[in-house]
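Handoff note, outgoing to incoming analyst
You'll be picking up this chain. Sequence as last confirmed:
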Amino acid sequence: MKLIHCADLHLDSPMTARLSDQKARLRREEIRQSFRRLVEEGEAKGAEIFLIAGDLFDEKTPTKRSRKYVLDVIAAHPSVRFYYLSGNHDGKETLQEVSPTLPENLVLFGEDWQTDCPVPHLTITGSVKPDPETLMPLPEDSCNILLLHGQVANGTGKPAGDLLYLDRYKEKNLDYLALGHLHSFSEERLDARAVYCYSGCPEGRGFDECGEKGYVLLDWDGKTLSHSFVPFAKRKIHRVECDVTDCSSTLELEDRIDRAVSGIPEEDYVRVVLCGSYLPDMLSILAPDDTRLSDRFFYAEVVNAAKLKLRREDYEKDISLKGEFVRTVLSDKTLTPEIAEQVILCGLRALTGEEPIL
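Most recent structure output, in case you need it:
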């Protein structure tokens, strides 16, 4: 038997932070449809059970359209059993508000521990307000899966907010903890018998969610439970560095950026981070045209994180306004090197007719 562990789909996420209105609408629709794509891909792989470990929606009051869409997808796959544990972004009765009659193949977890046995020797347990003290050891001769949503914490503290003190779940005869809340895949061992996994989100939404995104495919042969991460995202989010040290012209900078983004598919997001160091005379060069990359990718931006390289000797005999300004700032003992760099950077941008960055 195959199972899918997924979480943090965040349907109805606004997607307006960086994207144009048109692209934001497109991306919202793509994320909504990712649920259907995920179910169809899972069923094609032979999955009979879906474990949704929280944050199916981005808001506690998502649109009725998205909630109905989810219910319609579930109802359209009656041979698949869905287990849904709401997360910190989800409302308690998000789906019930759309329809008082839910699909028969959907199981919702409440505040008390609830254990379901879809087939002999397989148990699936969950609670939206988990208290490990009240969770009794599960059958030793079964494959036992537990759904939780929250942030893993060390120690044996009491339940508080989103914190999950996993030490308190040891020796419960668990085999697999299906976790939601963190948006990148990770796996660790809980005890001699069990592992716990964050599936991560199926689709990244911003540059804090770079890398592969997907779900976990579990395979239970009646005795042994195995799992593997499966990449899934329609659009991948990339953060690449471009060293600008000794760069001497706009053309050279463009060539370096082109090499940094080579091989990235055009449907993806890209952030190019300029790094290294540069002399003040290079300031105008380090303002590349973002639209040059935006025409090549779904979304692209260039961020200057390079360090200004100041050499006092370069300005000791400079009789220009720029030289006088740099010497004055470097001589001010009340300024830390970091503050002095920022003051000089703002001043040089102003002297060259560019808007200062504060």
